[in-house]
Write a structure and sequence with these properties.
The structure holds 2 protein chains of 2 kinds.
Chain A: E1 8-13, E2 32-33, E3 40-42, E4 45-46, E5 52-53, E6 62-70, E7 76-83, H1 88-96, E8 101-102, E9 104-106, E10 109-111, E11 113-121, E12 160-161, E13 171-174, H2 175-178, E14 198-200, E15 208-210, E16 219-222, E17 225-226, E18 245-251, E19 266-271, E20 279-284, E21 288-297, E22 302-311, H3 313-320, E23 324-340, E24 343-360, E25 363-384, E26 387-402, E27 407-423, E28 428-443, H4 454-462, E29 466-481, E30 484-497, E31 500-516, E32 519-530, E33 551-564, E34 568-583, H5 594-597, E35 603-617, E36 623-638, E37 641-644, E38 651-662, E39 665-674, E40 702-715, E41 719-728, E42 735-737, E43 740-742, E44 747-755
Parallel strand pairs in A: 16-19
Antiparallel strand pairs in A: 1-5, 1-11, 2-3, 3-9, 4-8, 6-7, 6-11, 9-10, 11-12, 13-18, 14-15, 16-17, 18-19, 20-21, 20-44, 21-22, 22-23, 23-24, 24-25, 25-26, 26-27, 27-28, 28-29, 29-30, 30-31, 31-32, 32-33, 33-34, 34-35, 35-36, 36-37, 36-38, 38-39, 39-40, 40-41, 41-44, 42-43
Chain B: H1 2-10, H2 13-37, E1 50-58, H3 60-64, E2 66-67, E3 73-89, E4 93-96, E5 98-105, E6 112-129, E7 137-138, H4 144-150, E8 166-174, E9 177-185, E10 188-195, E11 204-206, E12 211-218, H5 238-243, E13 250-251, H6 253-257, H7 261-264, E14 273-275, E15 284-285, E16 290-292, H8 295-303, E17 308-310, E18 315-321
Classes of the chains: A mainly beta, B alpha+beta.
Chain lengths: ~750, ~325
């Protein structure tokens, strides 16, 4: 009888819960203090057997080191072989995807964590032939003798504790997963348009409606620092190096009380946990090059990180379109230092620059240019394992060259914020904070303009030079009452712009109720206010003097989260948003003349109702994918006229899949399809425009296919190199918007990525 | 409060000093960095442009009246036009466009400002005549009621639905007979490539810091011509008078459309047919061929676009849009 080779590897995963930064524990210990929140952290623990079958066709012994991301639900979110040869590496990765863990916890609450594990393969030893046993006697299984042995523990020098999952009503995107999403180019922010509730304006462009809220009503934050815009010009990448971003949370409504002064949605990103080991990553693509390096200093008390991206599109365009200039770049820097085990200082700085220009008759004309810079100084202090405070000061500068005017508009800003967290008990978490911001806004006088031009007069009226001062305080309580988690909160804001003052109170509440095994019911409700906003976010440009008053939105949603088999989750949500006194020039535009209305502050009432379906199996699984579908209706009212929003799209769907082809090959595809926008009859020959309809004709629907292919090579113990070919809209499909054909907006990307 | 007291007790002086020092140094460094970076968005380093002031004036016929070859004394009581959206195109460097229109009562005074443009180089001047939008600027002696009149929805055989681009009214007297005419024109007309001579270069030559003033003359009498070429045309009012079939003394566009072009053809004048491009004519037309079968077609399609004259004697290429558009086509 053949003895089945059951030589197996004994997996040794050493998970050390030490946080290697901030609290300077050089000796791993089972639990350590989280450097950011100052509360105890427990590492993940593997459940069940971790045996990995010796791969067929392999010979000899092999050692594979895996970097495993264990999500808050205990499943493996991502796994990569940091070192190891094939076929051992592929076998280890494939096996690891099916593992489950008791997740890491931060003060009792599950959190995601990245751990390093070593797997030692031992070649099977031949078993001497034995005569077949007599019928009915002996062990019929023919089990072989195990050749497994113990493994040599490998000290793990970092455990990366990720932030808490998004609050109820929010959706999180992790960078590891986003890397596999076709069309996202490894950028967590670019993956936002794949989420339910997000309606694109034009495919490939970085502006979108979120549950009916226009682009100017969506706020962007990085570690609580306001970011004026997310993407570089010309369908470029995000303005923040993706290597710095651990996760991105989208709150399409009912967001936590700490977020204020935006009446649409919130996009909140968290930077990665500082690391003391020297590591880095880089990429070079058709259009740009990027890099990130981080290291520790002062015996692990400090970390320093620098990152940036530089586009050489200008050089490329000089070859194919000599008269056109397209340039973008961004930088990021972070320094942390642990003054004491209870005190941590952080300096975070980042900025971006964009330019589009054209040369005519030997004179370079700047068509559009924009820049912003932020410097955030932060002090985290831990009073006790349950009480933590953060005090931060932010300075910044924004400037844009306004197309069509043309002139430069600027905002020199500063702010301070305080955030207090106190875990009163295992069931009660208090959070409170306050902030104040000052924006000093100026704009050049438009040179060489006709003083009678209504657009110039409107611009001067909408964007006067002035100082805006805003202050706010907020508080919420997270109550865990058995299966029910409820978070009531509120914020109070005072707005002042050019001498005009307004006050707003925003109550919020969110709850998550565990109703059955793997089933949660989620409700959110909130009121949000915002000063009047421009149609899209532009640095240095903000409507002044609270002209027309504050915008207001009432946001509510109800949904069900279900954990399905095969590590799949499904979420079904219905929402109802009401917008009052809304600035939405895009949404109320009247066919073909948006340019005439850009500098008009036209207010409207609005509503958006709909349902969302989100079914996901992590893209980092061997076979992962998701389905995102939004059915919605977005309506506007101006005066007595009620009509569909100009960007109402009843159906928006995204389907994506990624597959591990083995031997470190990975492929993915995404299919996007959405309804066309309403056809709005233009004003008849300068007349009072014809009334808009609630049931107009529509532009044709749009669809596109994105593809991604990656081949990775492991170089040494921790380094890797990947070739990535990716393309947004491989079908080169054009889009029709308000009767005009646009595109095809197709973005190819071929390049190399690597890390060490 | 208890938390605050604990914080104060636990913070040593040395730690506080270290905190403040690190924070201050970082702030200073960051502020210096921000200041140094303030200039990536370039300021305007272009050379100072030249300026072009566009004005609009009535022709002598509009202000003083004119006597036609067939003996009618014609006076113009009203010539209100919405025009503008002037821009500089071609190979020159345009620094700004006047993206608005102005409603002008051409009869009120000469030299009314239309818009100011800035640029450098040899430029192609473009402008439009179209029904006004709600943003139209009011010219001299133009009231909001005048604008509302031009924005009143209406249609004719050539523009099914639109506002009014040109409101032209006047009277003609011959002997004891007086005829009145009030013509409302609704198309959106684009003018470009304006120049004094057909084969001349771009009509505007702007040099740095230079200042030009060019006038667009509105020739109401253009609708009375018997040929599209202003240089060779004669002014006739008999076809208008004869079109007044109901004898009420008011000549309307609909009445003009009832007159076959063959009835007014007079040995070379009012030539019928399909007008695409007329080498001999003073206009340069773009686009599709236009069939002329009635006298109304002739006036509306051929003569109306010739009302504006660049620098009194020049001409522009014409493109016509029809109906439904929000502003000029």
């Amino acid at each position: 009888m053949l003895v089945a080779c059951s030589a197996c590897a004994l997996v040794v995963g050493l998970v050390l819960g030490a946080e290697s930064v901030a609290y300077a524990q050089s000796t791993p210990s089972p639990a350590a203090a989280d450097p950011i929140k100052g509360v105890p952290v427990m590492p993940p623990r593997q459940r069940g057997s971790a045996e990995v079958a010796y791969p067929a066709g392999a010979t000899g012994d092999g050692i594979v080191v895996l970097i495993v991301l264990v999500d808050a639900d205990g499943t493996v979110g991502d796994v990569n072989a940091a070192s190891g040869d094939e076929p051992f590496a592929g076998a280890a990765v494939a096996a690891a995807r099916a593992w489950t863990f008791d997740p890491a916890t931060r003060d009792g609450a599950p959190v995601a964590a990245r751990i390093k594990m070593e797997i030692v393969f031992h070649a099977p030893k031949p078993v001497p032939h034995e005569p077949a046993p007599a019928p009915g006697a002996g062990d019929p299984s023919g089990a072989s003798a195990s050749t497994g042995t113990g493994a040599v523990p490998v000290a793990v020098d970092e455990v990366d504790i990720r932030g808490l999952r998004a609050a109820p009503g929010g959706t999180s995107l992790g960078r590891a997963e986003v890397r596999q999403l076709p069309g996202a180019f490894g950028d967590p922010f670019r993956a936002l348009d794949a989420l339910p509730g997000v309606t694109p304006i034009v495919s490939g462009l970085p502006f979108f409606y979120v549950r009916g809220a226009p682009p100017g009503n969506v706020g962007y934050f990085l570690d609580g620092v306001r970011v004026p815009y997310l993407f570089h010009v010309g369908a470029g990448p995000s303005v923040i190096h993706p290597g710095m971003v651990e996760q991105v949370d989208l709150y399409p409504g009912g967001y936590p009380a700490r977020f204020g002064r935006y009446a649409g949605g919130i996009v909140s990103a968290e930077t990665t946990t500082p690391r003391t080991d020297t590591h880095g990553e880089g990429n070079i693509r058709l259009f740009d090059v990027g890099a990130l390096v981080e290291t520790g200093f002062a015996d692990g008390k400090g970390t320093a990180l620098v990152a940036g991206r530089y586009s050489y599109t200008a050089a490329l365009l000089s070859i194919i379109a000599k008269d056109t200039t397209l340039d973008y770049r961004d930088f990021e820097a972070r320094v942390t230092y642990d003054l004491t085990p209870d005190d941590k200082l952080t300096m975070l700085s980042f900025g971006a620059y964009d330019l589009v220009g054209q040369t005519a008759a030997g004179i370079e004309n700047v068509l559009f240019a924009s820049e912003f810079y932020r410097l955030d100084l932060r002090w985290d202090h831990r009073f006790s394992p349950r009480t933590h405070v953060r005090v931060a000061f932010t300075g910044g500068f924004d400037q844009s060259h306004i197309p069509g005017q043309p002139r430069n508009s600027r905002d020199t800003l500063g702010g301070a914020r305080v955030e207090l967290t106190h875990q009163a008990s295992d069931h009660v978490l208090f959070r409170a904070g306050g902030d104040a911001t000052l924006d000093h806004l100026t704009a050049d006088t438009r040179p060489y303009s006709d003083p009678d031009d209504p657009n110039t007069i409107r611009f001067n009226s909408l964007f006067p030079p002035r100082d805006d001062v805003n202050m706010g305080v907020w508080a919420d309580v997270k109550l865990v009452l058995g299966p029910w988690e409820v978070i009531p909160g509120a914020r109070f804001d005072v707005y002042n712009s050019g001498g005009t003052t307004a006050v707003a109170v925003d109550p919020r509440i969110a709850s998550r109720l565990h109703v059955a095994k793997d089933v949660h019911v989620i409700h959110t409700f909130g009121l949000a206010h915002q000063p009047p906003s421009f149609l899209i976010p532009i640095p240095g440009l903000a409507i002044g003097n609270l002209k027309g008053g504050l915008q207001e939105s009432i946001q509510s949603s109800a949904g069900v989260e279900i954990d399905l088999p095969e590590q799949t989750t499904a979420t079904f949500t219905v929402f109802d948003n009401i917008f009052l006194n809304m600035s939405d020039t895009l949404g109320v535009s009247q066919g073909g003349d948006v340019g005439d209305q850009v500098f008009k502050d036209q207010r409207s009432q609005g509503s958006a109702i709909g349902g969302e379906v989100y079914i996901k199996r992590k893209l980092t699984k061997r076979l992962g994918g998701y389905l995102s579908y939004t059915l919605s209706r977005s309506v506007r009212t101006v005066g007595t006229e009620r009509f569909l929003s100009a960007f109402d799209r009843p159906h928006v769907a995204n389907v994506a899949a990624a597959y591990d082809l083995g031997k470190l090959w990975r492929a993915g595809t995404r299919f996007t399809i959405y309804s066309g926008t309403p056809v709005i009859a233009p004003g008849g020959g300068g007349l009072i425009p014809p009334p808009r309809s609630l049931s107009p004709d529509r532009d044709p629907l749009f669809y596109r296919l994105d593809l991604r292919l990656e081949k990775r090579w492991n170089l040494g113990k921790t380094a890797w190199l990947s070739f990535v070919a990716e393309m947004l809209n491989v079908t080169l499909h054009k889009e029709v918007l308000q009767g005009q054909t646009i595109g095809p907006v197709s973005i190819p990307s071929v390049g190399l990525e690597g890390a060490f | 409060m208890r938390l605050v007291r604990r914080f104060i007790r636990r913070t040593s002086t040395r730690r506080t000093v270290a905190l403040v020092a690190i924070a201050g140094a970082a702030t200073a460094l960051g502020a210096a960095g921000l200041t140094a970076l303030d200039a990536c968005v370039p300021a305007d380093t272009r050379p100072v442009p030249g300026s072009l002031l566009l004005t609009v004036s009535p022709s002598p016929a509009v202000t003083q009246g004119v006597t036609t070859v067939d003996g009618w004394n014609v006076t113009f009581e009203r010539l209100v036009v919405n025009m503008g959206q002037a821009s500089l195109g071609g190979s020159c460097n345009s620094y700004s466009e006047a993206d608005y229109t102005r409603v002008l009562d051409v009869t009120s005074q000469p030299g009314q400002k239309l818009s100011i443009l800035y640029g450098i180089g040899q430029c192609d001047l473009r402008f439009r005549v179209a029904p006004p939008t709600v943003d139209a600027v009011l010219g001299e002696n133009v009231s909001q009621a005048d604008v509302d009149t031009l924005r009143t929805p209406g249609g004719d055989a050539y523009v099914p639905l639109g506002g009014i681009s040109i409101d032209l009214a006047g009277a003609a007297v011959r002997g004891a007979v007086t005829k009145h005419f009030h013509l409302l024109f609704r198309p959106r007309v684009r003018y470009g490539n304006c120049r004094l001579e057909e084969d001349a270069g771009p009509g505007v030559d702007l040099v740095s810091s230079g200042a030009l003033t060019y006038d667009i003359r509105m020739e109401g009498e253009a609708v009375l011509r018997d040929d599209v070429d202003a240089a060779t045309a004669s002014l006739r009012f008999d076809p208008f008078a004869n079109a007044d079939k109901d004898g009420d003394g008011n000549v309307t566009l609909d009445e003009l459309r009832q007159v076959p072009i063959g009835d007014v053809r007079d040995g070379g004048a009012f030539e019928a047919g399909t007008y695409v491009f007329d080498d001999d004519a003073g206009i340069f037309r773009q686009g599709r061929a236009i069939p002329i079968t009635t006298f109304g077609d002739y006036v509306y399609e051929l003569l109306l676009p010739t009302l504006p004259r660049f620098r009194d004697t020049g001409n522009c290429t014409v493109g016509i849009g029809r109906g439904g558009g929000g502003g000029p086509g």
